[in-house]
Amino acid sequence: MSGTTTHCPYCSLQCGMVLTPGRGGRTLEVTPWEGHPVSEGGLCRKGWTAAGLRGHRERLTTPLLRDRASGELRAVSWDEALDRVADGVRAVQAAHGPDGVAVFGGGGLTNEKAYQLGRFARVALGTSQVDYNGRWCMSSAASASNTAFGIDRGLPFPLADVERADVLVLVGSNLAETMPPAARHLDRCRANGGTVVVVDPRRTATAERADVHLQPVPGTDLALALGVLHEIDARGAVDTAYVAARTTGWEQARAAASGWWPERVERVTGVAADEVRALADLLAGCSAGRGSAVVLTARGAEQHAQGTATVLAWIDVALALGLPGRPHSGYGCLTGQGNGQGGREHGQKADQLPGYRMIDDPAARAHVAAVWGVAPRSLPGPGRSAYELLEALGTDGGPRALLVHGSNVVVSAPHATHVAERLESLDLLVVCDLVMSETAALADVVLPVTQWAEEAGTMTNLEGRVLLRQRAVAPPDGVRSDLEVMAGLAQRLDAPGEWSTDPAVVFAELGRASAGGRADYAGLSHERIAASDGGLFWPCPDAGHPGTPRLFGERFAHPDGRARFVVVEHRGPAEPVDAAYPVHLTTGRVLAQYQSGAQTRRVRDLPDTGPFVELHPMLADRLGAHDGEPVVVTTRRGELKAPARVTSTIRPDTVFVPFHWVGANRLTNDALDPASRMPEFKVCAAAVRA
Amino acid sequence: MSPATDPGVVVVGAGMAAVRLAEGLAARGTAVTLLGDEDAPPYNRILLSAVLESACDPSLLDLRPRGSYADAGIDLRPGVRVVEIDRDAREVVLADTARVPYDRLVLATGAIPTLPPVRGLVRPDGTLHPRVHPFRSVADCRRLDAAVPTARRAVVVGGGLLGLQVARALAVRGLAVEVVEGGEHLLRSHVEAPAGAILARDLRRLGTEVYTGARATRLVEGPDGTTLVLDNGAALATDLVVLTAGGRPATALARRAGLEVRRGVVVDEGLTTSDPRVHAIGDCAQHDGVTTGFVPPAWEQAAVLADRLAGGDLTYDGHRPVARLRATDLDVAVLGDPLTAVGDVVEVTNPVVGSHRRLVVRDGRIVAATLVGDLSRVGLITGHYDRGTVLGPAEPAALLAGDRPAAPRVLGDDAEVCTCAGVTAGAVRACRSLEDVRSTTRATTGCGGCADDVRALLASRPLTPSGGTR
Where is the BFD-like [2Fe-2S]-binding domain (chain B) (predicted)? Predict the structure, then answer.
């Protein structure tokens, strides 16, 4: 095969692709990596057009420095830019202490960058204030999985396992649009005789491909799960042998679910009692190994102030049926961002160190400090979570400087107007990006960095499969990698230790730092992944270990080997609808765009529709709204004017706005989940007028 | 108000409202004692008819794991009957003359079933006829359940929600069931006559005979067994008689203690009775002239009172009742009180398919509704009712109308068929084969969702002469 094998720069599926440079390296041709086990030669529109930023006129190729007098950004040399950042960091830290400087990362960064960013924060800056946009991705599923199973790997089995499931339940996932090549697994599941169930307030492209679609009120998936658990129990379909041998906490969980008979569920969720019973019937048939069933959650279930509890409720269902650890069965989370999985494992999270170690665990600190060649006590403790960090910027006791890598928080954070205000109050904002994102446009220093085709590194996809991103072309002149940025700053800040800019070297160090941790990469290397058949699954503790495609066959990761049932209580959305804001607002994605759109909105071959407001004909009638004409959505936090899309595929009491454009997140609620610190992106109270 | 300490809160009753209150108090660290007159540990009454139907595992009835009360800080005393409230001494008196002091007393005594005036129901010694079964408690449920295997026929006296549930449960268990309702139609305290008529028809279709406007008057023993005689002359030979003809709030204690009692124990928005140290919640309480008999308001009251007894200031401002029949193959939802609600009525009755749906709308809000035989929009309608959504003028009718059938899809050349690769119908039509489509447009190679459309487009393609050039 000519060209370089690598993976798509966008979502967590990480489809395999082959890049072939043309005409002097300015352009790149994308073709599918035919044999790759994840995508089997499939790509979606975003992947096909991923090279559209190569040679793009908006690509940043020189560091920019804001002139404080004129307010304008001007091109400067790398030395001048990095000196300015280092000076700024020193000044802020002299006045406000180490925590005066904060770091914000992203779930799109390679494992090497994510790892290095965590180390850079703790060792070079000495700050506890480091977190990343993964908090807004799958963090609720992560905290739920850690609680229930003692480990967080989005999918504890290869995605293709779902094709052999008798029942596949997707809660709040629109994978036919968010990761289209994954949708073939649904079709194959059905072709094999399986039943696919989609739970979503909208009849999405994914729901269209399912056998059963349940359409709950946004923010009530938890109550639905409790109702399903209740009905499974009522049928005597609980796998009591499994529950006794492999779990704890069942009696309390069942008592909590006993109050959720289907008619009560109906009143809360809007899903008819008979539909609840039908889903319980389907799942009950798979209990105790009589059949196989998989429950998958995604952002629709997770991006709530009760996101962790919601996931735990669905895990309770899976445990009651005895699914986790059985063939073609179990619970999993469909992670969103390209490296959402790896990005949360190696230390860019406020409370964690590499290898999914907890930063307040003395043994973990000692291990990681030894790898880093520093004293354990020199490592800071846990810092603020993503939204709390942004909210604290520029406030008393909050950070005064912020370094952003791989995130466009002005578009992607909830209550975005407030976040923009916080950024503007900083003494120093540094943004590393490919293009002038909305966040970069506010920065004092903008540093142009490499994009996927121009760098090597590893990505861990939604299955926990570690994949190798390979460099296909040299970056444009003037562009550096994030590793080079960190090395340059570390040197200026006299940070101890080596700061390699070679991803393979950094990955080897990551392996040592992760050794013995929950996400153990010690046996992996760039070389080994390149020679493997489509990537290797962690944990992989030594060079002779084959990797671990499936977890939980024998035991769960808690010390006693058992999974935990957790008692959860439905409280409903943090902001219920009322007379002034009578409609539920939910947000999500469209196929042709990715995240904040900083990349995809600039790709010419992708349709850029701008935001729109999806609403049901009954609601449109009530408001006098017409398809294609503008409507105004208002919440307690902001307002958005966009064209109406009138469609009967959405609940009549709910409107939907895609979040790829500035505006949607000016509306969303910043109420946080107590465990994961996930904001409630997926439901708030809104008013709509024509 | 200081949070209650020793001797704490004493609750008379250990039903669903009482346990919810106790959990709320225990979570706030307030000592609480439950005095329940039944021997069984607290159970979920809602599930009894499902247990009778064998659709629910009886072990699910427990409201909490049995051993968990003490651990949670709840002093549960089952099998204890309270005979008197001594308000001056702030004590309750038990049947064995023991006295239990309280700082705050909560009455959660529930309701007691009323026995219809049927001769022969009660034997001279005061016990019930052995074939007669009330259906209120878990003990009633167990006794009836035990009688089912040897019975062939049953008569259910009472055509309300509970009566229909029990009738369906017994029919599902294989018994020949008849329902006797004294009113002119089934569910007479909830729905209008046309809805009741549809239900009666549904029941008959399911093999259950229904007698309306007929009262049971006598239970007689004959050589052929037991017969229930109705006031219309009908004589129903039967093996079981189940009484579901309503209940009334259990207010005797409160009345004897001199508290204000009308239909139920009268409480204010703080769920306090005429004695500031005595409260009442659940089926026995009357708030704003209303007693409910449903679990959701009882739980709401329990949550409010738990907050208040721990020093909070929540208030109870009434409840929007929703009655849902839990019976296999009978679809009924009643929102609010459609019999008395005032407003514009939007109604669709379709006797052909056996559905009757009626919305009562005032100032754009659904204030009551009856849905029988067609629950296709029950979730949405209940949501609008619960949230007081102000609907547009055409919306109530739209809620009762079915979804319009989708128009057949005609794909113009500009219509996007493959969203993964951004391929239009025209581009597909320009291809000769699926292979051609895959290689030139990439359609079908992403998620594969457009494969059917692509095949259809290729099949409808006009034939071109072989060897033709383009």
Answer: 417-459
